[in-house]
Design brief:
Blueprint: H1 17-25, H2 28-37, H3 43-54, E1 56-57, E2 63-66, H4 67-74, H5 79-95, E3 104-112, E4 120-127, H6 128-137, H7 143-165, H8 174-199, H9 204-218, H10 224-230, H11 245-264, H12 270-291, H13 305-320, H14 323-328, H15 344-357, E5 363-365, H16 366-372, H17 381-384, H18 394-404, E6 418-421, E7 424-427, H19 429-440
Antiparallel strand pairs: 1-2, 2-4, 3-4, 5-7, 6-7
Helix pairs in contact: 1-7, 1-11, 5-6, 6-7, 8-11, 8-13, 9-12, 11-12, 15-18, 15-19
Amino acid sequence: MNRTPKDEPVAYDYDFDEAMQRIAQTNPNEVTDLVNASGAVGGIEALIDRFEDAGHDNGRGDKCWYARDLQALLGYKRWEDFEGVIRRAETACQNAGHDPSGHFVEVLRSTPKNSEGGRPSANYELTRYASYLIAQNASSRLKAVAFAQTYFAIQTRRQELADRDGVDFDALSENQKRLYLRNQVVAENKRLASAAMASGVHTAKDFGKFQNRGYQGLYGGRGVEEIKDYKSLPTKANILDHMGSTELAANLFRITQTEEKLRSKNIVGKERACDAHYEVGLKVRQTMRELSGIMPEDLPVAEDVRKIARQERKQQRMRAVEPQKRIEAPLEGPKASAPVEIDLRADLWKYALLIMSVRPDGQISTSDLIDEMPQFVKLSEAHTAKNASRPDSKFSQLVRNLKSHKDSKSNFIYQGYAQDAPGGFKITRKGLDFAREYFSDRS
């Protein structure tokens, strides 16, 4: 990422676009490669844990970081140097139309600056947004900064999506991410076309050339037809319809940043507009090389998104049915009056989802789940017998393990089918969809 001069603040000028590009592009393997390349110790999980553990709840349900902690995480040795970063971040915050006082709250440490006592040292309580701006304005020479920029961009945008649209990006499947991003590409391409026309790109032929130049920058000199040939796509295929979330997000970043450049730089002339589109595409390509080393043309070809959209519309029609009627369908197999024999270790979680799906709030306590499960699944005497060493049964312990083993990669909470609720579980949209499909096939 190119940096501005040290004394100029970096503005928050890509709220949706780059964050989504980073979210879609940042999978654990890719970031691990990035982290390893930068010489970090302990892997991506350890770095994420360090940043998460450094944050705290400010008492209003929001996560905040102290500037002194962030200083250490970003690798700054002197507070005086880090204060300059904070000043630039505050300016960027103000330039973006936000009140810095709501994001940078000056506080004093509870302990003195030194062991001999004296005046407590200055500190700041920083919102996630403020922490993000600080990471953006920090020195790119420090190895921890690249990770921090990605980390806070992702976390900040995820929070914004949740607040604005109720979108939990973590809970979306790959196909749902593709649909979300593909719809954004459609909308942003319209804005890009408007900006290109204002720059002098008027005819269909000129616009085709303009679009091709953007692809050439992003795809190493390949235009639309060359990309189809390289990816073995049908001649009539729309390449955007066969992109996975990573590739779509990279193109979304290309589109929105080109529009911004055309308008903000007041670019006039179709050739200059084409060159601007190429340059932005090339910048995005360079970013992908730096983050993952995987070029867009080498990302896998995905199933036609139009087919995914048809499936999603079908699912939406199902969701339009009032909840109780929709949920009764999975209960046709099995009925509570006809418990079935299952592999408790392998399939217990599926029937836990079934029971949660018929509750109005989708939530159940562990004890209620233990009580209700025998209505749906057959239990042997060995499973219901009390353990010699503790009061519960082998079966009840298996139910409790659904919660206690939530950090296991095979666990249904870890996989996003349910949430860890106080004293029990709560089904997610992913879990509800799974229960409906799984049990409707068995009716």
